[in-house]
């Protein structure tokens, strides 16, 4: 009796995981048959230019896919393809502290990245979308002083969003 129960339970689990494609415990759901991914160099078209931003975003997305999936990185035309363009990099004042003499208590750096994702295994999962994230920093600090601390945080948030949209099907 017990052996029959375990056999049925194992069959149900097998059918469940097989129906979902390839699943990893990181939450990534990779389509069956997908073995590779490619990430084209993200072009920087933002009005304010950060010289390392293109490289940083490209590498962080590659690293995330390598560490969170079983896919192999290929130069071009992977089973899953990522292309992108940095379209926004702007610092704006927020948290105005006085009506009489308006000054900002904080500034906000916002980065926008337009991403095209092509899923060669299931074209219905492909998308083109702009991802935007920000981080606030003290108004007493200039942007060039704040960038080393906050840009990596913003890039990580954006790459998490791209990864989740592309391969996490919750």
Shape: elongated
**Percent of residues in helical segments?**
25-40%
Distance between the termini: 35 Å
In percent, how much strand structure appears in the residues?
25-35%
The biggest sheet, with number of strands, parallel, antiparallel or mixed sense and barrel status, is: 6 strands, mixed
Cα Rg: 21 Å
Number of helices: 3
Low-confidence stretches: 13-26
CATH topology: Double Stranded RNA Binding Domain
User: What's the SSE pattern?
Assistant: HEEEEHEEEEH
Give me the count of strands.
8
Q: What structural class do helix, strand and pairing data support?
A: alpha/beta
Mean pLDDT: 84
Top-tier CATH class: Alpha Beta
CATH architecture: 2-Layer Sandwich
CATH superfamily: Lipoprotein like domain
Counting structural domains, the number is 1
Description:
- This protein has 170 residues and is of the alpha/beta class.
- It has a single domain, classed as Lipoprotein like domain (Double Stranded RNA Binding Domain), CATH 3.30.160.
- Helix content is 35%, strand content 34%.
- The protein has 3 helices and 8 strands, in the order αββββαββββα.
- The chain has helices at residues 2-19, 53-68, 143-167; strands at 22-23, 29-30, 36-39, 43-44, 72-73, 80-96, 104-119, 127-138.
- The strands form 2 sheets. Strands 3, 4, 5, 6, 7 and 8 form a 6-stranded mixed sheet that branches. Strands 1-2 form a two-stranded antiparallel ribbon.
- A hairpin with a 7-residue loop joins strand 7 (104-119) and strand 8 (127-138).
- Helix 2 runs parallel beside helix 3 (143-167).
- It is elongated, with a radius of gyration of 21 Å.
- The protein starts with a helix and ends with a helix.
- Residues 13-26 have low confidence and may be disordered.
């Amino acid at each position: 009796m017990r052996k029959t129960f375990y056999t049925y339970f194992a069959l149900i689990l097998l059918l469940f995981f097989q129906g979902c494609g390839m699943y990893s415990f990181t939450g990534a759901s990779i389509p069956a048959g997908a073995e590779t991914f490619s990430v084209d160099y993200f072009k920087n078209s933002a009005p304010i230019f950060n010289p390392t931003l293109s490289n940083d975003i490209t590498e962080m997305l590659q690293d995330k896919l390598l560490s969170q999936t079983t896919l192999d990185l290929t130069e071009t035309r992977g089973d899953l393809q990522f292309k992108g363009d940095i379209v926004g990099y702007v610092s704006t004042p927020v948290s105005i502290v006085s009506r009489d003499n308006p000054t900002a208590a904080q500034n906000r750096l916002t980065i926008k990245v337009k991403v095209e994702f092509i899923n060669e295994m299931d074209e219905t999962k492909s998308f083109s979308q702009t991802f935007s994230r920000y981080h606030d920093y003290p108004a007493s600090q200039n942007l060039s002083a704040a960038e080393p601390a906050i840009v990596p945080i913003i890039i990580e948030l954006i790459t998490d969003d791209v990864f989740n949209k592309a391969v996490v099907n919750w």
